[in-house]
Amino acid sequence: QVQPVESGGGLVQPGGSLRLSCVASGIFRVNAMGWYRQAPGKERELVATISSGGDTNYVDSVEGRFTISRGNAGNTVYLQMNSLKPEDTAVYYCNAEFRGLIFWGQGTQVTVSS
Fold it and tell me: Quick check: 86 and 15 in contact, CB under 8 A?
């Protein structure tokens, strides 16, 4: 069973930075991995994805502020978030794709507030 586990969320002031990590346990290497977020009262939205070859994709609202990257291990992904804004407040979810199946983590809360 592939189980992504997120970490690194927390409370940060506007303009600050956070780095989220996700490890997909139960497997040595997965294909694409991604970060999604869901704010209260809103639908879950894509934040960034990265393929096994390193190709990246970002939602417009985070382009230039967030960076997604893969770890040396084939089952790890990071999200470096800079210049955070209150509208970035959400639960951030990691997912991993393996053999056509998508596996989701439980999420980590990110709160941007002064």
Answer: no
Give the residue among 20, 9, 12, 8 at the shortest CA–CA distance from 71.
20
**If we measure between CA atoms, which residue out of 25, 24, 20 comes closest to residue 10?**
20
**Contacts of residue 77, Cβ cutoff 8 Å, sequence gap at least 6:** 21, 22, 33, 34, 35, 50, 68, 69, 70, 71, 94, 96
Residue 86 is which amino acid?
A: P
Percent of the chain with pLDDT over 70: 100
Q: What is the pLDDT of residue 29?
A: 86
Residue linked to tokens 């934040």: 47
Alpha carbons 102 and 96: distance in angstroms, whole number:
6
